[in-house]
Amino acid sequence: MASSGDEPQVKKLKTDNDNSEIHARLEKERLEMAVRVTNFKFNKKRVQMMSKADEVPDCDGVLYWMSRDQRIQDNWAMLFAQRLALKNHVSLHVAFCLVPKFLGATIRHYDFMLKGLEEVESECLSLGIEFHLLFGEAKEALPKFIKDHSIGGLVTDFSPLRLSQQWLEDVKEAIPKNIPLCKVDAHNVIPCWLASDKQEYSAKTIRKKIHDKLGDFLTKFPPVTKHPYTSKYPAEPVDWIAARSTLEIDLTVKPVEWATPGTRAGLDTLNEFCLKRLRKYATQRNDPNVKALSNLSPWLHFGQVSAQRCILEVKRYKNQLKESVDSFVEETLVRRELADNYCFYQKNYDCIEGAYKWAITTLNDH
Q1: SS3 for 360?
Q2: What pTM did the predictor assign?
Q3: Which of 25, 158, 162, 341 could form a disulfide with 185 if both were Cys (CB 3.0 to 4.6 A apart)?
Q4: Where does residue 28 rank: exposed (0-12), middle (13-18), buried (19+ CB within 10 A)?
Q5: Domain spanning 10-345 has what CATH number?
Q6: What region holds the Photolyase/cryptochrome alpha/beta domain (predicted)?
Q7: Alpha helices for 127-191 (secondary structure H)
Q8: Candidate from 9-18, 215-224, 268-277, 353-362 with smallest mean pLDDT
């Protein structure tokens, strides 16, 4: 079948070198969007101001408090933080707050996350961005960091979970009132609070709301580029072995071996899916005997790969594999963002009281 535009020929792309091709292509594609983020028309609807302050005071730097979205490129929160730093001619810092335990996570989860963060540190170093691994809850670690590093602006990513929302509120109360605090939904294509203003009943009720907004939000990404302003407070290299010693978690559930952590490996998996398994996705994804799934869940869960990037890549095959592309978009966009909608608007999302009345009635009847 003939294809138009820049759509690839699926049958011609099965070579051993395809994974290296995706990284160079995406780097070129980002630069074609803008030389740097200040030359890009950033959609400010992605941003929510969490503070009354909206101007960065005299300072040494801007901080991106990385939490749910653990990657540098294809990250709207990271891009907004660099944009803010460039506009104010100051340095750029990234901080991740490592807590000793989190919602029952085991070493399987922490190992994947920490190895991904090692890649984040390495990429930050190559871009002149200071990466800091902080220990303990954000409400204690971030205010001290902000004071010690003369930070004048704080940007963070979005999570609908109760604990993460509480962390954000605690930090908001603890930092100086003259520092702007901005929240950017870098996990969903459509910011959760804009996709719908209420808890949606089903995929059917949210689907049109999401698709109607794709023109504004399903865009290509500009690059996070080499940062030109250095800090008076350079980061110390992270001691990752010492970081692991602070964990208070179950060590018996061993790390997975089939999935390599980090953005680069995640993009390799995405590319392999497009080339080898996407053609089977529509009709065979529920057959456990067929390799038809994307296998992207670990990288999406830790924000090491952007769901928006996954959708943009898969849509390149729209003319040739329409049914599979549509099925993947339905799962990765509509169904996935419906889950965030539920957790964001339903405060009892993790207990039976959060279920609809008909569901509770059915359970009681049986």
Answers
A1: helix
A2: 0.93
A3: 158
A4: exposed
A5: 3.40.50.620
A6: 60-192
A7: 138-148, 162-174
A8: 9-18
